[in-house]
């Protein structure tokens, strides 16, 4: 049987194919998207016989209500070797529909799509959004790529920096909803990673505040020299203080490099946030992979699957191992980079303490000058405000980095916990 049969399919219906939250199913295709195998649940819910499914393109179950842009994003990522999650409305053989959350993963020679029944609040919002995207495609004649751009723009408006970030958030929400539907405790490791995201966003804001504060003091040493030229002969105490302050502030400013990567173009926390999203996706997908593997092994043991199904179980086992390793590797890299941040903040605080001692000397000298120091007081006021601000910002940064490290450690797959030690990067912090 080949896809030619699909021309005779029944018209699409407004009736949904019922299946339970316990039902997990998957299908495997070759590199062109032609169905090679799957489990009994997939065959049952789709309504096709195996003779009709095997050898047919996967789009045999595509529903016309799906926006083209979703599939464009999906295939764009898959062709780059990136596992991707998506909400998909499928079409059964008899024309009825069924919704799934699908995690599609590249494997050697093709792809595997694992599906579960969606039930989170995100799913309700996505269904409405898909209707909007579909309407735009039809009314404005948008092609797949144009539709994909509209989808990405909508996601950015909602606060997601990329489709990858959204799919990470979505699968985590779906796994939590699945746990609730099955009366299970929420996965504490997923919860830890979800909690790490807003903490990292706050950390990013504090880093920006740190850079802005140092930008504001650039002119202070010059102002001190100008004031000194009015109050004392060249080389006097205030001139010496301004020179020392300039030298030490330059050293402190240079140390800010420990908070930057990509040749200074990005804050370190900016590069960590996408990896937390990736780790969240990998961990949730890993859980889903483990469950579908267990379901498949049980079905195999009960002789509920077709001959040769052991091959599919082996594929699922390999995928699970891969997801586990990648999850651990991503989180270890996050832990090490956040450790870099923590150490940089601690070192910077020590340098600022030295800088603060020069500020105190400036205040002492102002006291010695008495009423003549009136022109120096605005500069001292700037220094006072700067040091209070910097000290508070660094305190918050150190607290936030400690929290992120704790959350990442709590989320780490057990087999990787021993890897959670700070490893200084070769050649400095830039990568």
Strand arrangement within the widest β-sheet reads: 2-1-5-4-3
Helix content: 55-70%
Mean pLDDT, to the nearest integer, reads 88
Contiguous runs where pLDDT drops below 50 for at least 5 residues? 1-8, 418-431
Total of helices:
12
Written as H for each helix and E for each strand, in order along the chain, the element string is: EEHHHEEEHHHHHHEEHHH
Distance between the termini: 52 Å
What is the domain tally?
A: 2
Query: How would you characterize the largest beta sheet?
Result: 5 strands, antiparallel
Please give the radius of gyration in angstroms: 29 Å
Descriptive report:
The protein is α+β, with helices and mostly antiparallel strands and 431 residues long. It has two domains: 186 residues, 2-Layer Sandwich (Beta-Lactamase), CATH 3.30.450; 232 residues. The chain contains twelve helices and seven strands. It has a five-stranded antiparallel sheet with strand order 2-1-5-4-3, sandwiched between helices. A two-stranded antiparallel sheet has the order 6-7. A hairpin with a 5-residue loop joins strand 3 and strand 4. Helix 3 packs across helix 5, helix 6 packs across helix 10 and helix 7 runs antiparallel to helix 10. The radius of gyration is 29 Å and the shape is elongated. The two termini are 52 Å apart. The N terminus and C terminus are likely disordered.
């Amino acid at each position: 049987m080949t896809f030619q049969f699909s021309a005779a399919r029944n018209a699409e219906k407004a009736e949904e194919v019922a299946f339970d939250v316990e039902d997990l199913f998957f299908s495997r295709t070759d590199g062109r998207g032609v169905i090679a195998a799957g489990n009994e649940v997939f065959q049952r819910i789709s309504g096709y016989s195996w003779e009709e499914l095997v050898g047919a393109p996967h789009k045999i179950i595509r529903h016309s209500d799906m926006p083209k842009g979703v599939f464009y994003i999906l295939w764009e990522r898959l062709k780059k070797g990136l596992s991707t999650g998506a909400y998909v409305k499928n079409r059964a053989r008899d024309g009825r529909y069924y919704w799934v959350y699908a995690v599609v993963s590249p494997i050697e020679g093709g792809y595997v799509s694992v599906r579960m029944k969606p039930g989170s609040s995100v799913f309700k919002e996505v269904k409405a959004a898909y209707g909007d995207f579909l309407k735009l495609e039809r009314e404005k004649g948008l092609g797949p790529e144009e539709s994909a751009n509209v989808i990405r723009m909508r996601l950015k408006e909602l606060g997601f920096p990329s489709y990858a970030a959204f799919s990470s958030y979505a699968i985590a929400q779906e796994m939590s909803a699945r746990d609730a539907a099955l009366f299970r405790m929420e996965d504490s490791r997923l919860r830890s990673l979800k909690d790490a995201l807003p903490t990292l966003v706050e950390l990013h804001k504090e880093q920006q505040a740190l850079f802005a504060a140092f930008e504001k003091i650039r002119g202070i040493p010059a102002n001190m020299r100008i004031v000194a030229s009015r109050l004392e002969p060249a080389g006097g105490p205030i001139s010496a203080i301004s020179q020392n302050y300039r030298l030490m502030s330059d050293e402190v400013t240079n140390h800010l490099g420990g908070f930057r990567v990509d040749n200074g173009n990005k804050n370190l926390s900016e590069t960590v946030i996408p990896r937390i999203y990736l780790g969240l996706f990998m961990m949730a997908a890993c859980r889903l992979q483990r469950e579908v593997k267990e379901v498949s092994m049980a079905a195999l043991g009960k002789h509920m699957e077709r001959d040769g199904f052991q091959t599919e179980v082996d594929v699922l086992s390999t995928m699970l191992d891969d997801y586990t390793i990648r999850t651990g590797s991503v989180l270890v890299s996050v832990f090490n980079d956040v450790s870099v941040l923590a150490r940089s903040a601690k070192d910077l605080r020590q340098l600022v303490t030295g800088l603060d001692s020069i500020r105190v000397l400036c205040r002492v000298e102002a006291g010695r000058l008495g009423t003549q120091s009136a022109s120096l007081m605005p500069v001292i006021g700037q220094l006072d405000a700067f040091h209070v601000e910097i000290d508070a910002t660094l305190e918050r940064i150190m607290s936030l980095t400690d929290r992120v490290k704790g959350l990442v450690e709590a989320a780490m797959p057990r087999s990787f916990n021993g890897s959670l030690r700070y490893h200084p990067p070769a050649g400095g912090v830039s990568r």
